[in-house]
């Protein structure tokens, strides 16, 4: 499998990685697609008929790497979207099988374990991965490939959105680029303060507890809010932020590990 695509189906978007062997050539996001788009990808022959739903600004430099029915490795947390991609003729759906960690449980998301695997192989074990996506997740493993465990809670954006949708008068609020005033004097800032400072306190607590268990443990942050989360940590807890690595492509490194494990 020389050139291949990794597709990670997340809770909000599709995340794409184009590989040449083990080298990641390009990474991008798109929205969910229909089965018709999958059929278009299977029939792709030139830039003119490459599905714009997958890559709206298809770059000609990628053309030599993408051919008709290019191998596609799919990791998904959305069963409805998984079914759509199963119709692609050269697809490999990633499951927990063949992932060499102990203590895995059936409902564990493949996205979490792949990100953990990718982090561990690149940064070493023991490893704690904080994924700041739609959900904020903590996933960890020791240096014997044992899953230590983790936690799941609503991410920054989901908490802000829930307050807007589930209350009568609270406004829609975006994440600020800088830490908000903790003791706010207006409602939007009060919402930002409540969500951000509470999540930061929880993240700090998990990191401190992790380091009490493994004083040589590594910590990596990934996910769509990764850079903003690190920025908040640098302002609020610079000593904690110095211990954290940021890596946007952890899950693609995990997909690459799965591919190598199966010798695809």
TrEMBL record:
InterPro entries: ATPase_NBD, Type_III_PanK. Substrate binds at residues 105, 109-112, 187. It is found in: Cytoplasm. GO terms for cellular component: cytoplasm. Its EC number is 2.7.1.33. One of its GO terms (biological process) is coenzyme A biosynthetic process. ATP binds at residues 8-15, 134. Keywords: ATP-binding, Coenzyme A biosynthesis, Cytoplasm, Kinase, Metal-binding, Nucleotide-binding, Potassium, Transferase. A monovalent cation. Ammonium or potassium. Pathway: Cofactor biosynthesis; coenzyme A biosynthesis; CoA from (R)-pantothenate: step 1/5. The active site is at residue 111. K(+) binds at residue 131. GO terms for molecular function: ATP binding; metal ion binding; pantothenate kinase activity. Its cofactor is K(+); NH4(+). It catalyses: (R)-pantothenate + ATP = (R)-4'-phosphopantothenate + ADP + H(+). NCBIfam families: baf, PRK13331.1. Belongs to the type III pantothenate kinase family. HAMAP family: Pantothen_kinase_3. Catalyzes the phosphorylation of pantothenate (Pan), the first step in CoA biosynthesis. Homodimer. This is Type III pantothenate kinase. It comes from Mastigocoleus testarum BC008. The lineage of its organism: Bacteria, Bacillati, Cyanobacteriota, Cyanophyceae, Nostocales.
């Amino acid at each position: 499998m020389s050139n291949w695509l990794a597709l990670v189906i997340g809770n909000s978007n599709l995340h794409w990685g184009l590989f040449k062997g083990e080298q990641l050539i390009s990474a991008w996001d798109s929205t969910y697609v229909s089965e018709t788009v999958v059929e278009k990808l299977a029939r792709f022959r030139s830039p003119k008929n490459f599905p714009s739903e997958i890559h709206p600004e298809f770059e000609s430099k990628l053309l030599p790497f993408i051919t008709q029915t290019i191998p596609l490795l799919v990791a998904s947390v959305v069963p409805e979207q998984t079914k759509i991609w199963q119709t692609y003729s050269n697809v490999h759906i990633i499951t927990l099988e063949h992932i060499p960690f102990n203590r895995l449980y059936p409902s564990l998301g493949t996205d979490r374990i792949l990100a953990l695997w990718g982090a561990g192989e690149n940064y070493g074990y023991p490893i704690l991965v904080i994924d700041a996506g739609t959900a904020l997740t903590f996933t960890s493993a020791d240096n014997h490939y044992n899953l230590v465990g983790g936690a799941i809670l609503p991410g920054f954006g989901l908490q802000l959105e829930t307050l807007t949708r589930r209350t009568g008068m609270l406004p829609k609020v975006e994440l600020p680029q800088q830490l908000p005033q903790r003791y706010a004097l207006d409602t939007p800032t009060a919402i930002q303060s409540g969500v951000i400072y509470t999540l930061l306190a929880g993240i700090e607590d998990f990191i401190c507890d992790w380091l009490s268990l493994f004083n040589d443990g590594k910590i990596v942050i990934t996910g769509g809010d990764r850079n903003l989360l690190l920025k908040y940590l640098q302002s609020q807890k610079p000593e904690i932020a110095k211990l954290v690595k940021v890596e946007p492509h952890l899950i693609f490194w995990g997909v690459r590990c799965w591919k190598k494990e199966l010798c695809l």
